[in-house]
């Protein structure tokens, strides 16, 4: 009997079984929360959109890389199914709606959208890469989704034919919100976009009313960046050997010129008394800082910098930080015993430079505020560049190229 059991366990799972198991797992973390999204994910076959990988890989809750550029960087992929489910939940799509998708990818997400909007709805999907669109077109046509309209187009321009859309969803990382998205979204519609600011990326759900966007949901995420917005962020080296960098936005006066070598100066530690476990997220600290402190940015350290003891970030390549013209502080941790679920760590900050102590204290204050309510999400308001916000004056304003953001705690 034991040998028979082993043999049964080794029988390959069918695509249908793997798909249902994947959706069960997604539902267990409360994504695919609407019946329409859940049923679409149970119906649409993901493996036919990623034919180069195994059934197991197609139905794993993981990214499937489908194309790289000449330098080896990922240029197109199939996103994690759980993240796709979450974003479809954010989008609140319904039968009969017109939807614009920016970033066609494999075509799988467009198929999910088409399944939800039904025969009386319409889905248009655009991508700047002709090869990507061509591959998705074949997969959509061969699997019952010929009604999806695919267009080779720059996401920054959108697709005016078919506008206004009830919903717009971007499946590429955007540093800016193009003007075309405002003009092509119906008043009262919704936009879901993986938006980057201050070195972080959040899938933000926006309501669109009166020419402005106002967030109702934000979830930390990561996506392949949209082509054409590369100038929005800068990388500034702050260590003499080049192993540590800051990622800052175009509107921030933080430069390598005055910061190179700052980590060679003696560090000042500040501690918050707030603790986390090994699996706890601290992204909310970063989000809160971006709404309250103009120096918020991202520290990225190569392994060599950590091995040499130059810095002690919590996560080497994406650690929340504060910086000014001469100084920097970044998030760190130290062991603080164990709890029922394992080791605990106290959150703190290490500052370097003339105002390093002040920056470290400001970071610790942000940690303490976050610790009072770890689920609180600042509101993000956005509008076209040059327009007035109409909000109270206490928000943190971030200037981009085509739009502005204002964040309110």
Task: Explain what this protein looks like in three dimensions.
The chain starts with a helix and ends with a strand. α3 (35-43) crosses α6 and α10 (283-292) packs across α12 (356-372). It is globular, with a radius of gyration of 23 Å. It is of the alpha+beta class and 409 residues long. The protein has helices spanning 2-9, 15-28, 35-43, 55-58, 81-91, 108-117, 130-142, 179-184, 256-259, 283-292, 303-307, 356-372; strands at 64-68, 74-78, 98-102, 122-127, 149-152, 165-170, 185-197, 200-209, 212-220, 233-237, 244-249, 268-277, 296-301, 319-323, 328-339, 342-352, 379-384, 396-399, 403-408.
Order of neighbouring strands in the sheet with most strands:
5-4-3-6-7-8-9-17-19-18
**Count of alpha and pi helical runs:** 12
Radius of gyration (CA) equals 23 Å
N- and C-termini, Cα separation: 61 Å
β-sheet strand percentage? 25-35%
Low-confidence runs of at least 5 consecutive residues: 1-11
* Main beta-sheet strand count, sense and barrel state: 10 strands, mixed
Overall mean pLDDT: 93
Kindly name the structural category.
alpha+beta
- Shape estimate: globular
| Percent of residues in helices | 25-40%
Total DSSP E strands? 19
GO molecular function, one term: methyltransferase activity
Keywords: Cytoplasm, Methyltransferase, S-adenosyl-L-methionine, Transferase
InterPro entries: Methyltran_FxLD, PCMT, SAM-dependent_MTases_sf
Main location: cytoplasm
